[in-house]
Specification:
A hairpin with a 2-residue loop joins strand 3 and strand 4. The protein has 14 helices and twelve strands. The relative contact order is 0.11. The radius of gyration is 26 Å and the shape is globular. Helix content is 25%, strand content 11%. It is of the alpha+beta class.
């Protein structure tokens, strides 16, 4: 009896030991180094009083404002002339199938939203950080063509019109005397409205980020971050890359600019960060406050039927908008596997991929990333089978005459 009892005790102890061992093995472990993102935030310079003589005006044009800015910031002009926000250009790149180096950027590529800025410069360049880009003759070497106010206005009253010129009736001297570091409103003036309207293109960028709650964006809502806290800027080159206009991840930003590669208290979560991007878990849905465009059918344009900005416009065609969208997921290493370059031959019987992210499960540099995928039907050359950038704006443009053949011809001639 005693022997049998002792066997039960030994068995119970052994079982308990196994259970305790399992619990210890799977308990969350403290990471070796505390995640302290605030220590890595850029320091904002103190505000400078700009009510100086050089900015008292009066100013008749944006060019005059920039000339005054350059009196105290002579280096800024040259820096901006080489920044992608002014050049709208990336490259050159060596691209398979092309004998000559290829340039990308908004200046050169097409997309499946508004298609392309050539030959539609005036409305497209309303979001250019410069003045006067009305056609192919724009001077990218002239510092006074740079628009300082679009990024540094703090009044909220600065508005740009076609070709990037300031809207009529603005008190440019008053605005110039109140400049400061870029705010969410400054960046959002263009980026919230990509694709022709609020939340249209990006899905995770819209005017609700101007004053967001923390359940929408924890950095901006809870801690009052501005865009340039993460998109850090050096010599007027703003950090960040988008595969819609660039083929590389040079000057890219990342969560690990502030956070550790393994920031979680639980190692079971940390083991995923080698293969899963932070955004995959932390952005489970987008377009949570405003719906975003997910389909655009240009072939339906031109009809005199009832219009609705979220369903149909005569000048643009038929749309589909969605909200609370679950992203598409794919392996991504920061590059672009397949970028459509103007002149590339397409197969009209198949979907043409405009910008396919590079990476796969066997790529050690790739992680699973979330993406918004936008589908569209747009004009192409039915004889030579390549996509076309039509002229939509102005004399002879599709929005004027609703004639695709003429719009295509004028686009090809630009």
């Amino acid at each position: 009896m005693t022997k049998k009892k002792s066997m039960w005790i030994v068995g119970a102890v052994a079982t308990l030991a196994i259970i305790v061992l399992a619990i210890v093995l799977f308990l969350p472990k403290q990471i070796s180094m505390a995640d302290n993102p605030r220590a890595h935030l850029p320091k904002h310079p103190p505000h400078t009083d700009h009510t100086v003589t050089a900015l008292k005006g009066p100013f008749e044009s944006g060019h005059e404002v920039t000339q005054a800015c350059l009196e105290c910031h002579p280096e800024a002009g040259d820096q901006m002339l080489h920044s992608s926000h002014f050049t709208w250009e990336h490259g050159p790149y060596d691209v398979e199938g092309h004998d000559e180096p290829v340039y990308t950027g908004k200046k050169h590529v097409i997309n499946n939203f508004c298609i392309g800025i050539t030959p539609n410069w005036p409305p497209c360049t309303a979001c250019h950080a410069g003045y006067g880009w009305s056609d192919e003759t724009f001077d990218f070497t002239e510092p006074t063509n740079v628009d300082c106010l679009v990024c540094h206005d703090t009044t909220g009253s600065y508005i740009k019109k076609n070709s990037g010129y300031p809207a009529d009736g603005l008190d440019l001297a008053s605005i110039a005397q109140q400049v400061g570091i870029p705010s969410r409103e400054n960046c959002g003036g263009c980026h919230f409205n990509g694709g022709g309207g609020d939340a249209v293109k990006h899905g995770d960028l819209d005017t609700t980020l101007t004053h967001p709650k923390d359940d929408l964006d924890v950095h901006m809502g809870r801690y009052d971050f501005v865009c340039v806290d993460c998109h850090r800027t050096e010599d007027h080159e703003i950090g960040g890359r988008s595969i819609s206009v660039s083929l590389d991840d040079e000057n890219q930003i990342a969560c690990t600019d502030c956070h550790l590669e393994t920031p979680h208290q639980d190692d079971r979560i940390n083991v995923h960060t080698a293969n899963v991007a932070c955004q995959t878990c932390h952005i489970p849905e987008f377009a949570r406050k405003k719906s975003t465009k997910v389909e655009w059918d240009w072939s339906k344009a031109g009809q005199d039927i009832p219009q609705d900005p979220h369903e149909y416009l005569k000048i643009k065609g038929e749309f589909v908008y969605e909200d609370n969208v679950v992203p598409d997921y794919t392996w991504y290493n920061g590059g672009v596997e397949d970028r459509y370059i103007l002149g590339d031959i397409i197969d009209p019987a198949k979907v043409t991929v405009i910008n396919q992210p590079a990476g796969n499960i066997d790529d050690p540099t790739a992680k699973i990333w979330p993406f918004k995928v936008h589908h569209a039907k747009q004009i192409y050359d039915t004889e030579y089978n390549y996509l076309l950038p039509p002229k939509t704006y102005g004399e002879g443009g599709y929005w004027t005459n609703f004639e695709w053949d003429e719009a295509a011809r004028l686009g090809a001639e630009a």
